[in-house]
Give the backbone structure.
Amino acid sequence: MLASFWKFTIIISFCLLPVKLEDDSDIPAIAKYFNTKGRYEEVNPYLIEDILAVNRSILQPPSAQCHEIHLTAIIRHGTRYPTTKNIKEIQQLYNIVLHNASGEQNWLRELQTQWTMWYTEDMDSRLVQKGVNDLKHLAVRLSKLFPSLISEEKLRGGLIKFITSSKHRCVNSTLSFKAGLTELWAIKDKEFDHAVNDALMRFFDKCTRFVQEVDKNPSALTEVDKFKEGPEMRRVQEKIADRLKVQYNTITDDMAEAAFYLCAYEFAIKTVNSPWCRLFDEVDAQVMEYANDLKQFWKRSYGHDINSKSSCILFHDVFSRLDKAADENKSGQQVTEAVTVQVGHAETLLPLLTLLGFFKDSEALTSTNYATQTERSFRTSHMLPYAANLVLVLYDCGGSDLRLQPLLNEKPVAFSGLTGQQASMPLYQDVKEHYRELLQGCDFETECELFKHPAQV
């Protein structure tokens, strides 16, 4: 383990030059539907032209007097290999294509004669080289967006703090983010620590009520199961079977998902428009996206109250850092923690985004309303690609005028319930008033204790 860790740290160096990644023919037509297996570049397509491009005009503080005093970034790890479970399903799908499929299509012949099963079970969710680059590039872009906060002086001065989940993909993403900065500023004489904190970054494992009522409770995902058995998913499975010329019962919903994710992994990891992607057209991809959004909705988001409440500990941590920065700034002291970088998982970000009220549609996602949800805001393809990030920036605009700007994936988002300019960069005091009930309550221990709450599933 230690040897592989050091091997990883040695091979992650690369040159941070603006470079066009690929032309359009390299991008699958269905790439924008890949949910949490999607690339960050599909959320911000301008990065395909220049991976280090930023647009500071998005910040738009209300006056020229405003300056940033603190930034908290909660970041999902970068691009990773499939899980062991995914890899086993990919192997099963490959066997079907190899031994049961027939047809003269070029893409099918390519799968049967040229594609080889290169995924191995020991890869199990490990960060890939593209994931290293995701975090290095993000570090450079954030330093360009917020040069007064993410600076060499503040890094060397110990004013930038790094916290990570214990999972190797998160630790290595944290190392990559730091490497992006140290390589940018050619820092070779000093190393910078990070803290492992699963209580904050993997709170979902520690929340007994969530684990028992949702994570380990099959009935919590009834809507997901119904959709998988419904007409939309059945049609996708039949179309895949028709393309492969295999019996309909060969392509289960698990095999359809394995094929969809295999197309996504081949693209995210290798930037390849794989022949596996030919198993889906855009209509199919939209159904697959909805199936996975439905799962995220019921397992990690608005489907059950405990999904968001499990993130209370991270919610309070974020606001305690903002309060500390506000208090130090008010008393004329230097803000002692100018930047906090916290690296976790999609399962870290989504409950917190839900608790904060982002991407809440007027109707819940269910197994029967796919047709009416085409314009939904709850789309994990947009919210949670690899290296997804929620950035909260605290501004001093003079006097007692402190403002807070939320950015998701380097784009402004509006706090739910606040309107006009108030939504994009509201007074910090207004934000605290808006979340007053959560700030006064939302106690992790109380919310996550199993027997004080009736089951809500």
